Amino acid sequence: MTVAEESMRTPVFFVAGGTGISAETLGNLLLAQFPGLTFTRRKIPFVTTVDQARSVLDQVDAAMTDAVTPLLFSTVSDEEIRQELQRTRAAFIDLFGSHLDTVERVLHVNATHNTTALHGVGDTVRYDQRMRAIEFAMEHDDGASLRNLEQSDLILVAPSRCGKTPTSMYLALQHGLKVANYPLVPEDFDSADLPRPIRPLAEKCFGLLSTPARLSQVRGERRPGSTYATLAQCSYELRRAEAMYRAHRIPSINSAKMSVEEMAAVIMQSSRLPDLG
After folding, report:
1. Residue spans in the chain of domains classed CATH 3.40.50
2. CATH match of 3-107 with 3.40.50
3. Does the annotation flag 165 for ligand binding?
4. Residue 156, beta-bridge partner list
5. What residues does 181 pair with on adjacent strands?
6. Residue 275 burial (10 A CB sphere; 0-12, 13-18, 19+)
7. Does 45 appear as a known binding residue?
8. How does DSSP classify residue 85?
9. For residues 176 and 130, is the Cβ–Cβ distance under 8 A?
10. CA distances, 201 to each of 59, 81, 194, 235 (Å)
11. Does 162 belong to an annotated binding site?
12. What backbone phi and psi angles, to 5 degrees, belong to 102?
């Protein structure tokens, strides 16, 4: 990228009183609607004092040029800090306060402005559920354990490197679901039968697929030059996996061009899984 091109990238700041996860997620959702533009992104979490807010303003305003105006996405809940951030010369997008008044009016209750409520412990029951789900996902990652497999909310089934592990962990962390993932290995492709350990649990299974080219690329990064990564091997495994899913009426998605967040949303909707986290 040339210096001229770099100078035209819009600076984007995600500012929050907590971890910044929500500011980043919501801000990026809006930025995704402008695929022709380029951005430089910076997350600034745990802004909990006015002095810190002033330091943020120094950074944001320093990024302003005659050519570009920075964007400041904020989920800061503290009123005094929000007012300070609004002094910026950049574009201030208040993802929290702009909606808070409406919610307070509908609920007839004043908000607590609790910066830890969303990603902190908060509801201890839901927090404990997430922690148990993460432990379950780690224990049952890649078929490592078959113990208590019947207790799973979901079993992800797929050939190697189709995205089972990150999707399992995301569903556990964000939604409190106990997700096991089971890898399909070469001997599993000899027939359309489900592997024996998961055969009685077909109603809990969800299949992941990819494209041969994408799977070959990902496997090649892990084992370059191996048969495992060849286009022919990837094509064969995906074809056999798809036939297996079809034979047992197991729903499936192609993960090649989907983010983990998108995959999780589709899986939850398709399997009608509750959000427990």
Report:
1. 3-107, 124-271
2. yes
3. yes
4. 181, 206
5. 156
6. exposed
7. no
8. H
9. yes
10. 54, 52, 10, 26
11. yes
12. -65, -45
Within the chain, how many helices (H) and strands (E) appear? Answer: 10, 8
Report yes or no: 24 and 14 within 8 Å, Cβ to Cβ. Answer: yes
Alpha helices in 94-163 (DSSP H): 97-107, 124-139
**Of 145, 201, 147, 154, which Cα lies nearest the Cα of 175?**
154
Phi, psi (deg, nearest 5) at residue 120: -90, -165
What's the CATH fold of domain 124-271?
Rossmann fold (3.40.50)
Looking from the CA of 82 toward its CB, the CA atoms found within 13 Å total 16
Which residue has tokens 């409406």? 102
- C-alpha 124/C-alpha 255 separation (Å) is 33
Place of tokens 């990564």: 229
Mean pLDDT across 6-16 = 86
163 belongs to an annotated ligand binding site = yes
What global pTM score does this model have? 0.66
Amino acid of residue 130: R
Q: Which two tokens mark 183?
A: 């890898």
Residue range 195-231, pLDDT digits in tens: 999 999 999 999 999 999 999 999 999 999 999 999 9
